[in-house]
Every structure is written in structure tokens, then in C-alpha cells.
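A reminder from the course coordinator: this example appears on the midterm review sheet, so study it carefully.

Given structure:
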């Protein structure tokens, strides 16, 4: 019995030290992770609206709307005389969430689109990143469901992008109406 208590005490100490070390490593690396995420977001914004000045909009009111939980960020932009919105949204693909950044002109026309980091199948689902696929959205005014073409063999992945473009438009429309 004494041996069991002694062994249990050792295991408890090992668990406590391990937990403390994991917490320490997490706290040390958290600022670097947040900085990398902020840099990726800025690069995404620049890729869809190069040279734009971005102002983050409050999306708290969207939380009350059904289907808007996948809106991650919403920005107003100005680029010279041009104005519009950029939405960062996500939609479920084949292997998980697909983040999509969509720039919309003030008239609601898609002027830029970028696909973020995802886990879609290499060689099949990752074809959503190609200019051939994303280029079809440029100039379209959402909703694009029914107008945009899916990729053969990657229907879930391409449908996720199509849904994301429509979601971005819906989010912008709701925020502009508020």
C-alpha cells in the first residue's frame, strides 16, 4: 500500500511539472502565434485589395443573425476614389474549414478573392487556389451559387468557396443596412 501511495505521489509531481511546462511554453509562444496570424491577415487583405486603406468594422451585430457565425472579420476599404468592403469568412470544405477573403466594390461586385490556409486534399481540393477557379468570381455580383462552376472531383472544396463568397456578400449587406 505504501508503494502505491509513493508511486501516486511521483506521478502527481510529474503531471504538475509537465502541466506547468506546457503552460509556460504556450505563454511564451502565444505572442509569436498572434503576430503570425495578424501578418497572414494583412497579407490576405493586401492580396485582394492591394494599396487599400482598411478600417475594421464591428461585426458583433452579425452574431445575432443566423448563418453569420463564419464571418471572421469585416473591413471597409478605400483605394483612391474607390470604396468597398473586404470580408474574411470561412466555409466547410471536404476536410475542414476553408478561409476565404473576398473584396467587394461599393456596387457589390467581387473585385478580389484569396483562399487562406486549409487542409483540403492536395492535388484535388487544393485546386480551389488556382487562378482558373478563383478568377471566375471577379466581376460577379453575388449570390454566385448557380453561376460559379465547381471543380470536378473537388465539389465540396469548390462549393465551400462559392458559399463563402455568398456569405461575404450577405455580411456586407447586413452591415451596410445597419
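Designed residues:
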Amino acid at each position: 500500500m505504501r508503494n502505491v501511495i509513493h508511486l501516486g505521489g511521483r506521478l502527481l509531481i510529474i503531471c504538475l511539472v509537465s502541466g506547468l511546462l506546457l503552460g509556460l511554453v504556450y505563454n511564451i509562444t502565444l505572442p509569436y502565434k498572434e503576430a503570425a496570424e495578424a501578418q497572414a491577415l494583412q497579407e490576405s487583405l493586401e492580396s485582394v485589395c492591394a494599396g487599400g486603406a482598411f478600417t475594421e468594422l464591428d461585426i458583433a451585430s452579425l452574431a445575432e443573425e443566423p448563418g453569420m457565425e463564419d464571418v471572421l472579420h469585416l473591413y471597409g476599404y478605400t483605394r483612391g476614389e474607390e470604396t468597398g468592403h473586404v470580408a474574411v469568412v470561412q466555409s466547410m470544405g471536404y476536410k475542414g474549414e476553408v478561409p476565404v477573403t473576398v473584396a467587394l466594390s461599393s456596387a457589390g461586385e467581387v473585385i478580389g478573392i484569396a483562399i487562406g490556409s486549409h487542409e483540403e486534399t492536395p492535388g484535388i481540393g487544393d485546386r480551389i487556389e488556382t487562378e482558373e477557379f478563383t478568377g471566375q468570381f471577379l466581376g460577379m455580383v453575388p449570390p454566385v451559387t448557380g453561376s460559379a462552376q465547381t471543380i470536378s472531383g473537388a465539389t465540396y472544396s469548390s462549393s465551400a468557396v462559392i458559399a463563402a463568397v455568398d456569405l461575404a456578400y450577405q455580411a456586407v449587406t447586413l452591415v451596410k443596412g445597419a
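The chain has three helices and five strands. The first strand starts at residue 53 and ends at 56.
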